[in-house]
Automatic annotation (TrEMBL):
UniProt protein name: C2H2-type domain-containing protein
Chain segments carrying region Disordered: 1-25, 48-68
Subcellular compartments: Cytoplasm; Nucleus
Gene Ontology molecular function terms on file: zinc ion binding
Native source species: Aquilegia coerulea (Rocky mountain columbine)
Pfam families, sorted: SERF-like_N, zf-met
């Protein structure tokens, strides 16, 4: 069991450690999602997912060719 200064230092260290691990992942999500469906504006990670998206959500439409 720690007392006094050791306890305060341990609490500060744990608070900093826990604070760094928390947070939103919006930046990472924005970097990963690079392809956008022109019809419904859904963001996808790659062209293969776009093809799957078109086959399931827009079956009457033809998927666009590789734009990248």
């Amino acid at each position: 069991m720690t007392r006094g200064k050791q306890k305060i230092e341990a609490q500060k260290k744990n608070a900093e450690k826990n604070q760094k691990s928390k947070g939103s992942q919006f930046e990472a999500r924005a970097v990963a999602l690079k392809v956008t469906c022109p019809i419904c504006k859904v963001q996808l990670a790659n062209q293969n997912q776009l093809g799957d998206h078109y086959s399931s959500k827009h079956p009457k439409e033809k998927p666009p060719s590789d734009l990248s």
